[in-house]
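Q: What does the assembly look like in three dimensions?
Context provided by user:
Components: two
Sequences:
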Amino acid sequence: MVFSSVIFLCYFFPVVLGVYFIIPNKLKNYWLLIASVFFYAWGAPKFIGVVLTVLVIDYYLGNRIYTTEGKAKKIYLLLSIVLNIGMLFYFKYFNFFIENINSLLGEFGASPITWTKIVLPIGISFFVFQEISYTVDIFRGEHKPLKKFSDYMLFIFLFSHLIAGPIVTYNVLADDIVDRRKKLNSDYILTGFFRFSIGLARKVLIANTLGLVADQIFKTPVDQLTSADCWLGAIAYTFQLYFDFSGYSDMAIGIGKMLGFDFPENFNSPYVSQSITEFWKRWHITLGNWMRRYLYIPLGGNRASAGRVYLNLWIVFLLSGLWHGASWTFVIWGAYHGFFIASERFLHDRISFSLPRIIKIPLTFLIVLVGWVFFRADTITYSLDMLKQMFSFGNMTISISLLNGFTYMLIVAGFFSFINAIRPINAITLGMFSVEGNIIKVSLRFVLTILLFAICLGVVVTSGFNPFIYFKF
Amino acid sequence: MITRTIKILFIATICAVILAPAVQFVFQYPRIDEQYLWLAGKTEKIELPVFSFKDWLEEKYQSTVTAYLENTIGYRTFFIRGTNEWHYKVYRDVYSNMVVGKDDGLYWKEYVEAYIGANVIGYDSILHRCQRARQLQQKMDSMGKKCLFVMLPGKASNTIETIPDHYIWRKKTNNYELLKKAFTETDITYIDLYSYFQQIKKTAKYPLFPKYGTHWSIYAGGLGADTIIRYLQQQWHYNFNQYYIDTTELSNNPRFTDADMYELLNIVSEIPQPELAYPHYVVDTTRGKMQTAKMLMIGDSYMFTLHQSGLMPAAAGENLGYIFYGKGVRDHNTNETGKKAAEIDLAAELEKTDVVVFVFTEINQEEFDFDMCERFLKALENKKDGTN
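A: Here is the predicted structure of the complete assembly.
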């Protein structure tokens, strides 16, 4: 069940929210939990049992970590990490692992290992990270474990961030899980709805439109594409990914707000970054934070030797790449970013001059765009061929048909991606979603949001309508 | 300063907006008149499934319920028409398989892509098909019968001036150009209405292609049918009824498929329809009843405009049969029998036919005979061997 669907917008969410505000406070968490389990079981019915089992074990381990000391405490933590990483490896990476082993065996003429392909449970990458954050934060003494198992389940399963983030760590959400009565008010509901509608528009109006062209180009063999087509595909995907992901995050944050939760921000105009280092402070912020807290710092962080710091950075980004998907293209993408991060760190201490902003921003954007080609392509060969075609600047005529809506949305996407480079507005501030201010401003914001919601609902309903006139056998 | 009351009012409005579609579907309130619930075009009807645990586990139940709720959501037709109106008027886009012309006219994308050569499969493939077609012509000659191929005009190739420029810029060699070359090389007997209509479009008395229709106009269909009949009469001395135009009605109410694409737009506003001509052909009975040639026509949907013009039935009378795309058979009075071409005895069909006419427009040029030449030749071969 996706947020941008009729079933979610018109049935699931109104019912969940409606009941949520009617029932007494002490029942709200239970209701959200029931709704969240239903939400997950709707999309992944076969895995609900496995996931619930792991949650039971993790909850028990969290309690054991809290009540023990010394070596036993560490062992319980290790068990939790191994259990979660093991589950992630098995469901997400085992197919990839076997495919590569078989490739290697093939090189030596040996027969391949036969196995049944494992299906990936949705959201596993996100909730594994949340489970790890729970036990580690308890281990570090930052928070006590949740008293009720149902509350723990809610922390992991809450439908708003379960499938696609943001990655909400335990230390961020712990207090809200237990008591958020002060946040169950009209301000939160309105701010949340504004945010949700903006996110829905980013996804449905912008990302989905750009995605049609990006998908069309990336599924065409490179030798049938001109240089301009390849550039168009890369640019379309660059914006599609941003508006899709940030749109989804906005919706998740908006839903959380309406329910009284304060989720962390996940995007902050990443394409106005002046370096890759800055890019990762603006793109998928919660992933960056998680990696820093639970991987980079335990590896030594900034306190290690210079060489070790560069290696740690590179390892973190390599694993970030792999986290996104079980494919060498993701690994290359991660290593690519790791290289730039480490290089910027290396050069930062050694070079005193700085390029002007007007060069740094497009240069950083170009580096990121090239990385997205690896991220999107199915194979490394395709991505290299595409990049070769792009930078040959050969035939610069667009050979594919473009809907006019695409052109408009590309302009809109570009505008909203780069506007913060022109005016120094901090997009993370909730000013644009705020209910404070004079009545005219807020009323206007409200009317525009309702209109936006209705337009998006119209597009969602229409997208499922594909009539035909004639049967053509 | 926003008071709490105003905030509550905002929230109530949000709830009303979000709940309105579901409430309308579940409680049928407010009631919507039937006329506003209609959308043009065929879509799959989906019923609410019965729950089964097995279907739940396999996610079949969920996908069917999702589709059902999407198809039945309240105010659906308003959402669709409103969105399509915006797309058509502002974006000048509609469905991904439609192209909006510079004059707001409509094309199916495949027609435009056929004109610009985006669907070319290669000369060798076309040549091979032409060779088989020529074999059929020669075989039928030996049987005392005739076979004719007719290149029909296409909407895209005939209205290039209104096709968006970014398509025109991409034009390369198309199937028509390859087919023309292959027809010449294999010495096939054919009529080229494709280029003929391009020549006459500026001098034609009435529009040859409707702005919002898939096919050529009824008037153009009549011109095309007239050309075919006269060719058969003059070249091969086949008998057909004499006919003439009794009246020509000019109308802004499109008939048959003259506005099929407009209907499919499913927009809010009504667009004035251009005037089209509908000649009324009648048989000239002063010359007595004629024994007309038995004609079998095989073609795509442009073929039916030949019939809808009224000229074909007037000229050929009852001795007229159609095979649609080489698959669906219509009897000589064009009442659909539901028969499939695969079910009929093709050799016997050829036996009772005097002339076979293949007609095809630009989207079908690469498979202009709908594989029927191969099937006819095989059927005749089998009959000769007694392996029917």
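Follow-up: DSSP finds 18 helices and no strands in chain A.
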